Request: fold
Amino acid sequence: MKVGLFIPCYIEQCYPQVGLAMIDVLQSLGVEPVIPEKQTCCGQPMFNTGCVTETEKLAIKFYGDFKDYDYIVAPSGSCVHMVRHGYNQFFRSNPDFIRMQAATYEFCEFIHDVLNVRSIAGTFPHKVGFHKSCHGLRGLRLEPASERNLVEPSKAQSLVEQLIGIEIVTLERSDECCGFGGTFSVFEKELSIFMGQDRLRDHQQAGAEIITGYDTSCLMHMEGILKSNNLDLKTMHVAEILSEAIS
Amino acid sequence: MSSHAKEAAAFLADEERVHWHDQALWFVRQKRDTASKNVPAWEELRETAHQIKMHTLSRLPEYLEAFETKASEKGVHVHYAKTAQDHNETILKILNSHNVKRVVKSKSMLTEECGLNHFIEKKGIEIIDTDLGERIVQLLEEPPSHIVLPAIHRKKEEVGELFHKHLHTEKGASDPTYLTQAARKHLRERFLAGEAGITGVNFAVAETGGITIVTNEGNADLGNSLPPLHIASMGFDKIIPRAKDLAVFISLLARSATGQPITTYTSHLAGPRPGQEMHIIIVDNGRSEILQKEKFRKTLCCIRCGACLNTCPVYRRTGGYSYKFVIPGPLGTVLAPHKDLKKHKSLPYACTLCESCSDVCPVKVDLHQQIIEWRAEIDKQGQLGLIKKAAMWGTTYLFKHPKLYRTLGKLGRIFLRAMPARLLNAIPIWGKNRDLPEMPAKSFSALHKKKLKQGGNYGK
Amino acid sequence: MGSREKIFADLNSVKFDQRFDYPTYAHPNSSVIDPYNSFTTVLDSVGGECHYVKNYDELKAKLVNFEVYETAKNICSCLPEIEKGNIDLNLVEDVHELHNVDLAIASGDFGVAENGAVWVNGDKLKHRGLLFLAENLILVIESGNIVNDLNQAYDLIDFENTRSGYFISGPSKTADIEQCLVIGAHGARSLIVFVIQGDK
Reply:
């Protein structure tokens, strides 16, 4: 299968190690992903601001960059949510565009749904708080959401849960929003930071050493707050944990 | 700074109070979770409720007419009010025709929407809100800050002070039981002296011409069982087809609102008591405009449970008043722009799109979807603002030109890496108490290219 | 054009692009296995009390020991076989006269296990306001019938011929002051339910 990796802009610019870790893990599972060179952004910031015309331009570009791949995988629940759902108002009469949308997966989701892998053997002796980023959670249903009365699989947390030595701590609020919210983090700054502080406090009281999740944007926001407040916590993307665990 | 952001910053300044407010509402959310998990068919109920509502909305003229006919047959005077003004004037006319000077009113967000109290009071008629939370905010002369828990923003000490002033309770007393008993006594007198009772309507059944009203306090029932005149106000979106449908909605309502399996009283009234006159006012006040807009139509399924407010991390931490609209929270956010898009354009952006609201909504209103639609509408109507517009054009251009994007990214990283941390984190755009990420020397693409060049097993 | 005409004109002009049919639905019963047990548990959790009795005699024997009965000066009973009371509802002209009823005894048609509610037909009472004015309320389910859930409950009610009917679950209450639950808001401050399981 031809797998193309979509690397979100903030991973491209600020957290390249997440992309590299993702490649490591996929290779260990027998997948040789390709990174299409011309990719840039899925258009989510534009879409979330309300700029549909600008979003469409980037949707066209995304399609052009990725249409030749059997699967498109991204280390980001929110970008994948954008492609699979946000793009639903574009190109409804183009079956190949629709195919591309359906073939776009978040990293953990790809491992669970396409590779049918339920656990990865490795060691990670740390106390970890799992942050269930909202778009991946309620948009892609990567995890069961606390609001709903449904039995649903865990696709992300389950991957790290079985690592040897890991302890996933119990949070008081298992899936409350961290307050990043894209441009919200800038335009409702005080509230954004207040919400992030609340999340960090929860992870701290639960005894977490490391906060992980499938969306680096949330982790970036929480990392910024914990660093500024000198908290004894660090953040790692799920791919980074898996990559370290299997090495 | 946007309107909501300004209000938010002011509310957030009292950190302890924010935690208190947030925790109080989260507690209600948790009770809702527990209650919903005790109903095995919960998700099916939600879907059924949604379908019943959408079906009804698609056949409103037919169901409204059926309701009107049946209710009239049972002796109810049915009125229609296109606007809030029509609603208020109709009620005034009815009150005047009976020389009413003392009204007792139970909870009705619709009457709040129409500004009924102020209108009636100006005409020299006393109108007392009998829901305890509503009475508290009425005495405080402030609007409710939540559609179900009107005084959630007030501490018991503040209520104690208020009751000391108005109800002559002991100074400094703040025990909720003591204060509630004082309110019971005070409002009992009003119920007995009331010449008319105004209530809201939770559901109006087309099949029977009957209405259903739910309360925990029993105030709506005293209000319609004592005075010789009962006026019930309802938005036309309260109509449901059959009495049997109540099984679905009543199962969902209290569990979603407060985590109770049912409210203490679920009252079904079809026609007046002997010797009583009963009126129902069916109100539009902008609902038909919402119905016209396909993308926003689902809002009319809303059963006003308040679950979306309780779950919203923004509402919990910024309070009802930061929305500057009669209804706050996610529900208010999708309703307000219909009334005045320019005034309320900050509301759809006072949201992280966490989608929790849509997941708790008992009738599956696609709240988060509508918030996104409003953002698009704000841009379409040219209300986005120059800064946001320019930023979007700029970044879109950049993202369409990968080489330029990567070059600028490289330069940006060099620049930011060169800046001393203290200066960097003083840049206001990212905020106080939040550091910018440490910029790596190389981008992912650069590192990846390097690894490919180095060969070995990488990229094979 | 009056409001009615304007509203109907506006509503009739709305176009729906798809059909929204009335759903056919049949809900699986709530997970109630033992309705009598569930009813008691839920009613208890909302501040009420439930007592199962075989007949009126057993009820009367229990009744005398309840504080709300012992301390009641004014009792209005709609079930004279159980208790005569000293206020005859049928002789009351104006519902306001009932303002000082300490204890009201009325009949409930059936109970609902999932939410501890009792269905009370208000039409049976000359003044339905009694249910809400009384300081304390006792409801007697003479049929002994407790259904599992609201789905079953609504099937039992003849709405066409019911002008007023109430599900009453527990005493009145409020949590409007700092989310602190207070039992006894504007309606009854206590609720006791008797369920007669044998022949009255």
The radius of gyration of chain C is 20 Å. The CA atoms of residues 50 and 156 of chain C lie 21 Å apart.
